[in-house]
Automatic annotation (TrEMBL):
Pfam families: Metallophos. The lineage of its organism: Eukaryota, Fungi, Dikarya, Basidiomycota, Agaricomycotina. PANTHER family: ESTER HYDROLASE, PUTATIVE (AFU_ORTHOLOGUE AFUA_4G03130)-RELATED (PTHR12905:SF18), METALLOPHOSPHOESTERASE (PTHR12905). Residues 69-228 form the Calcineurin-like phosphoesterase domain. CDD domains: MPP_239FB. It comes from Galerina marginata (strain CBS 339.88). This is Calcineurin-like phosphoesterase domain-containing protein. GO terms for molecular function: hydrolase activity.
Length: 254
């Protein structure tokens, strides 16, 4: 199956999911019922800290012209978990769109189609020309937002599929240790994790990164890559979540 077919494939119907794997189908049903309890528990423990509104976008104009997209809502931070098809699109994006957005903080990362950002000279030029933009590539930054200090970490890497940029070899690691230590540089105190690809078994069509979340457990994880899987999910870091992931990885269960 090609990368493009994975990125744009339609979600499976419940019947198709059942036929593909009855075990995974029932595991997901049970996990969703458990997740509702986790979401209620998390909501009850929200602090009274000043709120921060984050506007998240990704893969927004790889296949569509930016000016034809809907306007963005207002917010304190604008984050792009990016993917752009050609080097020539970066300059107009930064000049005419991203740099002109009204959000006080604007952060972006690269994606698997962004080969131009392999070029150190190009990355350095971003700092000089666009001082209001923060580009993260295997590094973190701390920002003051509404009286709160938040730490952001960004990475463009995804599991290998096709001849694209910012990919790492696929392996079969455990759920706990991660893949090839690719995520070992994520600081333990990260608040907002930004990666181009999703974590494994969560909004990923089984194409996500294993070991991406459990060590750092960020307050917010923003990602794209799998176009048809756009959604939100609240994780409670529970035994049920761990068991669900182990069932899908064929390494255990409840």
């Amino acid at each position: 199956m090609s990368l493009d077919s994975i990125l744009h494939r339609r979600p499976q119907t419940p019947w198709e999911q059942f036929l593909k794997s009855p075990l995974a189908f029932y595991a997901e049903l049970f996990y969703k019922s458990c997740r509702k309890d986790s979401e209620q528990w998390i909501s009850s423990r929200l602090t009274k800290s000043p709120s921060v509104r984050v506007v998240c976008i990704s893969d927004r104009d790889t296949h569509n012209r930016q000016e034809l997209q809907p306007s963005l809502p207002v917010g304190d931070i604008l984050i792009r978990a990016d993917e752009r098809a050609h080097f020539t699109k970066w300059k107009p994006l930064l000049h005419t769109w991203l740099n002109r957005q009204s959000h006080p903080h604007k952060i972006f990362i690269a994606g698997n189609h962004d080969s131009c950002l392999y070029n150190p000279g190009f990355k350095d030029s971003l700092k000089d020309k666009f001082s209001d933009l923060v580009y993260l590539q295997e590094r973190s930054v701390s920002l003051q937002v509404n009286g709160r200090e938040l730490t952001f970490y960004g990475s463009p890497f995804t599991p290998q599929r096709g001849p694209w940029s910012f990919q790492y070899p696929r392996t079969t690691p455990s759920l706990d240790t991660g893949e090839n230590d690719i995520w070992s540089s994520i600081p333990n105190n990260v608040d907002v994790l930004i990666t181009h690809g999703p974590p494994r078994y969560h909004l990923d069509f089984r194409s996500g990164c294993i070991g991406l979340l459990w060590r750092v457990r960020p307050k917010l994880h923003i990602f794209g890559h799998i176009h048809a899987a756009r959604e939100t999910e609240i994780l409670g870091w529970t035994k049920d979540q761990k068991a669900y992931e182990r069932i899908l990885s064929r390494t255990g269960g409840w």
